[in-house]
Amino acid sequence: MKTIYKKLLVLLLLLPASLLAQSSFNGVVxxxxxxxxxxxxxxxxxxxxxxxxxxxxxxFKLSKIKQGDAVVFxxxxxxxxxxxxxxxxxxxxxxxxxxxQLQEVVVQVGYGSVKKKDATGSVAVITAKDFNKGAITNTxxxxxxxxxxxxxxxxxxxGDGAAIRIRGGASLGASNDPLVVIDGxxxxxxxxxxxxxxxxxxxxLKDASATAxxxxxxxxxxxxxxxxKGTKQDGVKVSFNSLTTLNTVAKKVDVYxxxxxxxxxxxxxxxxxxxxxxxxxxWQDEIYRNxxxxxxxxxxxxxFLKVIPTRLSVGKxxxxxxxETSSFKRNTIALSMTPSFxxxxxxxxxxxxYATEKNRYADEGAxxxxxxxxxxxxxxxxxxPFGGYKESFTLNxxxxxxxxxxxxxxxxxxxxxNQGKSTRLYGNIQTEYKLHFFEDIKAVAxxxxxxxxxxxxxxxxxxxxxxxxNAGKLxxxxxxxxxxxxxxxxxxxxxxxxxxxxxxxxxxxxxYQNFDSESYYxxxxxxPAAEQKPDVVTSPGVNLQAxxxxxxVDLSEKYLLTLNFRRDGSSRFSxxxxxxxxxxxxxxxxxxxxxxxxxxxxxxxxxxxxGWGVTGxxxxxxxxxxxxxxxxxxxxTSGATYQFGxxxxxxxRPEGYNANLKWEETTTVxxxxxxxxxxxxxxxxxxVYSKTSNDLIAYVPEGSLQxxxxxxxQNIGSLTSKGAELNINYKAIETxxxxxxxxxxxxxxxxxxxxLGGLDFFQGSVGLDVYSQIHQERLAPNTFWLYExxxxxxGKPLEGVYVxxxxxxxxxxxxxxxxxxxNADITMGFMTNYNxxxxxxxxxxxxSLGNYIYDNVNAxxxxxxxxxxxxxxxxxxxxxxxxxxxxxxxxxAESDYYVKDASWLKLDNVTIGYLIEAPFNVQxxxxxxxxxxxxxxxxxxxxxxxxxxxxxxxxxxxxxARMFLFGLNYNF
Length: 972
Fold this sequence. Notes:
Layout: H1 2-20, E1 22-31, E2 42-45, E3 51-53, E4 59-66, E5 70-74, E6 81-84, E7 91-95, E8 106-108, E9 113-115, E10 123-127, E11 150-154, E12 162-166, E13 179-182, E14 185-187, E15 199-205, H2 208-211, E16 222-227, E17 236-249, H3 258-268, H4 283-287, E18 291-304, E19 308-320, E20 327-337, E21 340-341, E22 346-361, H5 365-372, E23 393-397, E24 400-403, H6 409-414, E25 416-434, E26 441-460, E27 468-469, E28 472-473, E29 476-499, E30 502-521, E31 535-538, E32 542-555, E33 559-570, E34 579-590, H7 595-598, E35 603-617, E36 631-633, E37 641-644, E38 647-650, E39 652-654, E40 664-677, E41 682-694, E42 697-701, E43 711-715, E44 718-734, E45 738-755, E46 761-767, E47 770-775, E48 783-786, E49 789-791, E50 797-802, E51 817-818, E52 826-836, E53 839-849, E54 852-855, H8 856-859, H9 883-886, E55 899-901, E56 904-917, E57 926-940, E58 953-954, E59 961-971
Parallel strand pairs: 1-7, 13-16, 54-58
Antiparallel strand pairs: 1-4, 2-3, 2-5, 5-6, 8-9, 10-15, 11-12, 13-14, 15-16, 17-18, 17-59, 18-19, 19-20, 20-22, 21-22, 22-25, 23-24, 25-26, 26-29, 27-28, 29-30, 30-31, 30-32, 32-33, 33-34, 34-35, 35-40, 36-39, 37-38, 40-41, 41-44, 42-43, 44-45, 45-52, 46-47, 47-48, 48-51, 49-50, 52-53, 53-56, ...
């Protein structure tokens, strides 16, 4: 009996120790429906400072866990689940999809974030699952066609940036680019230096109730970019991505072949038949090539020293352009660290990015020359003094040449070497402290820095036609450099408190941002020293400061109110007009939370949104100090001077200015509806809006001798933009083995100039003092303004015959009329993703309707005099086959014949992939192999190279490549 008591005593002593013993907890998290693993699930031990995230196979491991600990599993779009640890081994946790995914998606809204269900403004969120697939080497490509009302026009040259327009823009003379913010740092140096694989999500703020918190920066919308971060999970997760593409020319300009050109010359210019050669050369084939793209990046995610969630990535991209000699190389390093201390009261976010870029810029004049250069010539001529390249010339005297006709396009590429190199260092450190003595308040400070340093060399061979100077061989050599710096300081306080059924979120802060730049141009260093004019340009800089506040009120989780206000100051305006006030307000009603819809099996989400706000615009490019009275010194060797005796002195010349220049303001009214149907099988949003921009900043003519200049910036007139946007997501199939999703968006935009003070401004130069577009009241910006062409019975244009629209019996500029516009009425995007077991397939389409192009490729070439029949009797030039349609003898650039319907439908990419689990017998690893085609096809009535032309004038563009791709994603 005594022995039994002793054993019981030992058991009682060991019991607490056994309860407190620490062990490890392993398992996998899967989707309850499909049983597919879910990566990235947050696994948190309740009440302890321990958390991990599931790996790519949904697996997790918690160490130092005690029996009885509560473990919480949570992930966006799924219901949270809590499990009590009781020595389970290899537990499988099944998460149920949330009834309403819209309620869990987090939206970045500027100086904070909210759940999608609580957003009151027009905000779109694009995450990795929504990104475009395929050959993605530029950040903007991830967005193209994915958001209603957001138009991304990507150029074709390697490393080219993109023009982004949100709801058509809001200005005439100032910038229409949206504000781009990367992890809290507003940037203005573009996105080409960012590795797309570092991007986690985009939040796009479209209406003024959402963008007003950015005041002067938000009139054209805001794109908030969030990059990928580290994890609190032990161990290191590695991801390797590799992409290879074959880049080909999708379409060429249709020109005459050598034999067809011989017939043209024989028929229309028989006196120059002797200038025909014996060759047969397709010059477009000579300048274009098949290029190769290699893009590789490696990222590591982990918990550095077990307290600092860290992500490190390195990337390398090399692109050979389809135009000979053009190339782009980029190397990137990105580091993110997000530690937290003091029981999550003190948080840090450190983002550091470094990128190097190297461009070789091909002479794109070769594209036009390839259209015009004589196709009966061959490329090389042993007797040519221009490096052996065939050219049309006369030797007047030793080292004195007269050249004529189009230049040899191959020579333009091979005898020039224009290179640029740049380094960019950017990032920020954000500190957040939740007060220990008042936990409803947190203080946030954000320091940001963006520095770009670039150098360039531009060399042209002395033995080239392009290197002639005063008819003699000289060549060209220029050196340049440029630096720009962007510094940021943001600080704000946030108060968040719930009083019964009322939740209050109040933010107030201050922002300081400064931009400086300087540059150097050597001019041609091969010139005599007296003729060289090197110059260092130091920008006066731009300083922006602001005070801002925002109040969010949530009543009963049904009625949401947002009020924001920002007072902005810009150094671009005088002290009298320096500061502007920009308020915003929005209201949302979560109708689906009302009793009459709470248990609806049809409507799972319904929220009505109303918004109003005012935003400002001050970005007027080079006129940073147009309000200031300035004097410039005349040039010492070639400018105006004053003579005293034998000495000449430079003069101080007054510059024109406008002391009354002030903020451009845009007022937006927005009504929207967010919806989810059939347990969110169908989700989407509908928005209608109206924008009015007043006190437009525009570059306008000024009276002679009135202000020391003939034109300058003024506040004049107003612009209106109205539209509607619809976005729909449909989950067509959701089974254990397959899923099929569709995303469709459509946007309508109607933009008109309301007031310009009765003035007209001509735009779109297509020749000496010849303009094809106009800014005029009651018309869309850049509307085409030309003569109305008259056609014969067969539908061919009659040369020089136009409609006398005012009936005065003569054709003058008063007979020109508004004819179509470059901006689309409707844009659409469509994307589908299909997964079957380990296979995946994606396809993305875009369309643009109601947009027109001025075809300057034909307007500037397709005629006899001074084109086919060069103005020099010793030259002839090829042209486009449109000459068959017109037979014009003279240039008729002011005819509306050249305005073409450029609506288009594009299949942007098709991609198919296959997933291999645990390749190479490496557990918790996966390998996805994929292949596809980018820029698959274009359907359009426009017969030119590509109907997608930014600005509406096609004067030959760098072709967008059709890319055949193969890639892999390896995670372990």
